[in-house]
Amino acid sequence: MSSAEAIRLYRNLYRQINNQFTSVNGNLMWKNQLQSAFRAASAKTEAERASALRDARDTLNFLTSTKKYQDLYSEFNPKMSDEDRIKRSANRVGLGLPKTVEPKS
């Protein structure tokens, strides 16, 4: 694997980690872990480096897919109240909820 591809992979991982973890809660642990992992991989043998980059590519794929899933879920999953959710769940299994009566004030 070329160093240009490794740098591109590092930048993409850095961007995903920053968007999903660091900017959300201000925790720098993930960013620091990524930096130390890439620095440690540079001192390894070629086979170990290839394995580490393959793991990094898989991690990037996982983070990207998770983000896409969250975006699609929030876009297409309707936001509903607890009452509507319970009513739909009951209807799904063939039960009907009794009508609730609002007390008169």
From TrEMBL:
GO cellular component: mitochondrial matrix
Gene Ontology biological process terms, A to Z: mitochondrial proton-transporting ATP synthase complex assembly
Highest taxon of the lineage: Eukaryota
Pfam families from the UniProt entry: Complex1_LYR_2 (PF13233)
Protein name, UniProt field: Complex 1 LYR protein
